[in-house]
Design brief:
The protein is built from twelve helices and twelve strands. It has 321 residues and is α/β, with parallel strands linked by helices. It has a seven-stranded mixed β-sheet with strand order 2-1-3-4-6-5-10, with helices on both faces. A five-stranded mixed β-sheet has the order 7-9-8-11-12, with helices on both faces.
């Protein structure tokens, strides 16, 4: 099934399993969401479980915090990535800190779903990648699936988590299909996974860039280069052990994400892996991502987003050392 359908099925399963699970957001009910991710849920579970909210992101998250304090498990949708900032105060000053503020007595099991990233030809504030802003905040888990199977299972795990989870959904991949086994036993939520083995260099990515890295590995294979592709799956916490294990095999690392390279998640990975793998690395850790500039108009976004040529150029630079 497609990623969008997998998330829909995962939400459906959670709503069926636990009457305390609620879905909230702008147009999530009658419309089924702008990407139809919540299609049919309000019809089947009613307006008290799948709630159309006002256009007020701070109010949506603030209400979810209150519901969580009363024992509910709200799953809230922020319609587009750039719309999350009115709710940033609630997320950072309340949602992320209540557990520590109460010395562990209060838990806020809230999932904040955010379709993010570019590649869909959208207007301003609809194509941003703000994951590093949330990963920087202690008390939040930040994850992003790259395929339908992960989308299904990671959503289940996020809803079951007693900690707040920021769930970034790669909107340009919503219609990518893969097999989903609803009876499988999922791996840990924050465990990275090798999706392609290689010996010459590691490409580490998450969300929408994993598919690009697989395409890069295919192109590099035609030149006799064996690239390993690591799907990080989680941005906070990061599975540094899996990254380190891969780098110790390949001795080179390139981190790829849509967000700007400047102060992006790739910077933390590069710094930590340089500390951990200094004597294994045969080249500096390189990063490929967006530019340190506002996301451009749709007709220019392909120049802004990482693409096959830009990642292959980084591969050439790494292997040249």
């Amino acid at each position: 099934m497609a990623i969008a359908k997998a998330i829909n099925e995962s939400l459906r399963k959670a709503l069926e399993a636990d009457p305390k699970v609620l879905v909230m957001g702008e147009d999530v009910g009658k419309l089924g969401g702008v990407f139809r991710v919540t299609d049919g849920l309000q019809k089947d579970f009613g307006e008290d479980r799948v709630i159309d909210t006002p256009l007020a992101e701070s109010g949506i998250v603030g209400t979810a915090i209150g519901l969580a304090l009363r024992g509910y498990r709200p799953v809230v949708e922020i319609q587009f990535d750039g719309f999350v900032f009115p709710a940033y105060d609630q997320i950072v000053t309340q949602l992320a800190k209540m557990h520590a503020r109460s010395l562990g007595k209060v838990k806020l099991p809230v999932v904040v779903r955010i379709p993010y990233g570019g590649g869909i030809g959208a207007v301003e504030h609809h194509s941003e990648s703000p994951e590093a802003l949330f990963a920087h905040v202690a008390g939040l888990k930040v994850v992003s699936p790259s395929n339908a199977s992960d989308a299904y299972w990671m959503m289940q795990q996020a809803i079951q988590s007693d900690d707040p989870v920021i769930f970034f959904e790669p909107k340009r991949r919503y219609w990518d299909k893969a097999e989903v086994n609803p009876e499988a036993i999922p791996g840990p939520l924050h465990k990275a996974r090798v999706v392609r083995e290689g010996t010459d260099l590691t490409l580490a990515a998450y969300g929408p860039m994993v598919k690009l890295c697989q395409e890069v590995a295919d192109a590099a294979a035609e030149e006799g280069r064996a690239l390993e592709v690591l799907d990080l799956r989680s941005v906070s916490p990061l599975d540094f052990d899996s990254i380190q294990a891969s780098v110790e095999r390949t001795r080179r690392l390139i981190v790829v994400h849509e967000a700007p390279v400047f102060f992006g998640s790739g910077a933390e990975i590069a710094a930590r892996i340089t500390e951990r793998c200094f004597y294994h690395l045969e080249a500096p850790v390189l990063r490929v991502g967006g530019y340190h500039a506002p996301y451009p108009p749709a007709r220019l976004e392909e120049e802004y987003l990482p693409n096959l040529d830009r990642v292959l150029d980084a591969v050439d630079r790494s292997l040249a050392f």
